[in-house]
Amino acid sequence: MCQLGLRPLLAELIASPILNTNRLIAIVILLNLGGIVLFALYRGRVASVSQFEAPQVNATQEIGAKSVPTLAPFVIPDRPTAPVINSKVAQEIARLRSEAFNIVEDLVRRLKNNPEALCLLGKLHLRRGNTEVARSIWDYALKLDPNHSEALLDMGNAELLLGDQEKAEQYFRKAISSAKDPTDAQLALGKVLLDEGKMREAVEQLNLLLKRNARPAEAWCKLGLAHQQLGDFPAALTDYSKALQLEKNSWEAILGMQTAYRSLGDTENATKYTQLLSDPTQTNAGRTDGDRIDLDKDKAIEYFSFVSQTASNILIAAADPASAIATLEKANGVAPDSDPIRHQLVSVYARQGRDADAIQLLQSRCVQSPRSINAWMDLAVFCINARRLDVAESALRKSIELAPNRAEGYSLLSQIQMTKPNDAGLAVESAKRALSLSPVASNHYILATAMYHAKDLLGARRELTEAIRLEPSNQEFREALAQLPEPK
């Protein structure tokens, strides 16, 4: 599935922004919804962003197209046994774990000799503490494809758990040379180099990573630690500050700031960060998934969602969308409250032209959670793009009833009202309401379009001018103003 950036998608959607209401509907979703659901459907093509974006997997060719060594058939290893615990939470977590194994083992049987499927199975065993079993699975994957970056990275992580840093380093270096996106492998290598005391090499590796991708907060923390170990405390402070900009509650970054300031003799700032460390609400210390996966039901559901989504992506990459849908449907039945599973199932339904199934799934969520604003907005957004405007309008009115002070509902409702010749005045009122709640450039643009449909060219020009003032680099707004007829 192809993810498009905001500006490229806007440029694609807009041919004549003032004159084309259907395209503007997609634009307002982009500009207003943020973390809510986003679809841009063009005759069966789906561009997914935010919550509907599926996790990425490495693309591979069919094994039959490669020269594959002769290997004994892969035998699915026994699952690890777990102690019997009588608490309801523990039983539910055990059920999720068992269902995750069911999904991945079925995937391995279906896609014989598929390295991605084997990597996922190895991760499940590693999660359950079966390090040697996981290594044997990844070793088989590497015999199928010696340059498979994910298997190399997984093997490196396993060697770290076994305490062999030298072997881990070798695997990570090979993964970097093989991966299309080496971010994870570069970060892993940087951490190994730190553990080995190779500070300058760690700095070099982490700088290479951050030059290409400056988003991982953990990479900035590790770079800060390397600079700190080298005695370059000002550089360390810069690194930790960048980490905190990306993840404001990073315990590692806060601790690094405290240590660096103390080393520089800055007691005042060191004390400030010491106070932050003493407040558990201000840091993410102790909140790693690995520590909580077998104790926290929400984390167990999150991991089950990851496994299910990854399995479905592997099936899609193998040109088996029917099995991908079946996998997601099964996962949705196991964890019906998982938004990521539902969002991905809706996305795959849409790509397969099964809009009715997607709408039914979203409607069932609304029935299950009638007070969920996001559930109604998800339904509304999908139906807008599927051109089921009556259903969309009904869902929007329900979301407005639940959240009368959220601008998104009114701005989308205005778009629907613009499609009805007799509702031009209502579209203007809805757009004005959205603007009063959120006076951003995009809402001025929506009001301008509503005014154009209501034949108020002077008002449309005024609102477009204000949109451009607020967002002067927006070329779409400027093109809209240039195409707007002069008032008579």
Structure description:
The protein has 488 residues and is mainly alpha-helical. The chain is built from 25 helices and two strands. It is globular. The two termini are 47 Å apart.
Which class best fits the helix and strand makeup? Answer: mainly alpha
Query: For the largest beta sheet, what order do the strands appear in spatially?
Result: 1-2
Q: Which spans have pLDDT < 50 for at least 5 consecutive residues? A: 1-65, 286-293
Write the element-wise H/E pattern from the N-terminal end onward.
Answer: HHEEHHHHHHHHHHHHHHHHHHHHHHH
The number of strands is 2
Main beta-sheet strand count, sense and barrel state: 2 strands, antiparallel
Rg, alpha carbons: 26 Å
Key terms for this structure?
disordered N terminus, single chain, 488 residues, 25 helices
Summary of the model, kept short:
This protein is an all-alpha fold.
Give the topology:
Blueprint: H1 6-13, H2 21-32, E1 38-42, E2 45-49, H3 88-110, H4 115-127, H5 131-144, H6 149-161, H7 165-178, H8 183-195, H9 199-212, H10 217-229, H11 233-246, H12 251-263, H13 267-278, H14 289-292, H15 297-317, H16 321-334, H17 339-351, H18 355-368, H19 373-385, H20 389-402, H21 407-418, H22 424-437, H23 441-453, H24 457-470, H25 475-483
Antiparallel strand pairs: 1-2
Helix pairs in contact: 2-21, 2-23, 3-4, 3-15, 4-5, 4-6, 5-6, 6-7, 6-8, 7-8, 8-9, 8-10, 9-10, 10-11, 10-12, 11-12, 12-13, 15-16, 16-17, 17-18, 18-19, 19-20, 20-21, 21-22, 21-23, 22-23, 23-24, 24-25
